[in-house]
Every structure is written in C-alpha cells, then in structure tokens.
Specification:
By secondary structure, the protein is mainly α. It has four helices and no strands. The termini are far apart.
C-alpha cells in the first residue's frame, strides 16, 4: 500500500518522471495491498478464534477428568516450581535422628 501511495503522490505532486502509467500502477498497488491486509486480518481473527475454542475444549476435558477422578487432581495441584522450591529447602531442614 505504501508503494502505491508514493507512486500516486509523486504523480499528483508533479514529479518529472511520473505519468499516468505510474498513477495506474500506484492504484493497483493500493488495491492489492488493501486486499492482502484484509485477508491477513481475517486469517489472524480465525486463528485466534480456533485457539480460543481449543483452550475451551481442553479446559472442559480437564474439568471432566477432575470430576471423574478427584484423587488424581489432588496429586497434581502442586506445580513444578513449587516442587522445585520444596526440593531447595530440603538441604536447610534439620536432619531427624531415629531414637531406639
């Protein structure tokens, strides 16, 4: 679109090497650029909608699994970062001695 705009602007401003052919080429560039821009926006919107649908389906599936097996959900509640934090603190914990 920018190239088409610059071609048309140079013809309108009266540049020496510009003519009607440049004006027509600029118009074609603007039209093609606009079509490509509209198609890109539509594709981006479709991709966002599909991603949203996949996330909803995954959340629904996780909710169904959670309702069927609550024990598994209880085991999975701790994140990897929390587990790493627990493992970090194991070195700082005092050692327990078995008294017999």
């Amino acid at each position: 679109m920018y190239t088409g705009y610059r071609l048309c602007a140079s013809v309108i401003s009266g540049a020496e090497d510009s003519g009607v052919v440049f004006l027509a080429a600029g118009g074609i560039f603007v039209v093609i650029g606009a079509v490509l821009l509209i198609m890109a926006i539509r594709n981006l919107a479709k991709a966002g909608a599909q991603k949203h649908e996949l996330e909803e389906a995954a959340a629904k599936k996780a909710a169904e699994e959670a309702s069927q097996n609550p024990e598994i959900v209880a085991k999975k509640k701790m994140s990897i970062a929390e587990r790493a934090h627990l493992a970090e603190n194991l070195d700082d914990a005092p050692e327990e001695k078995d008294e017999k």
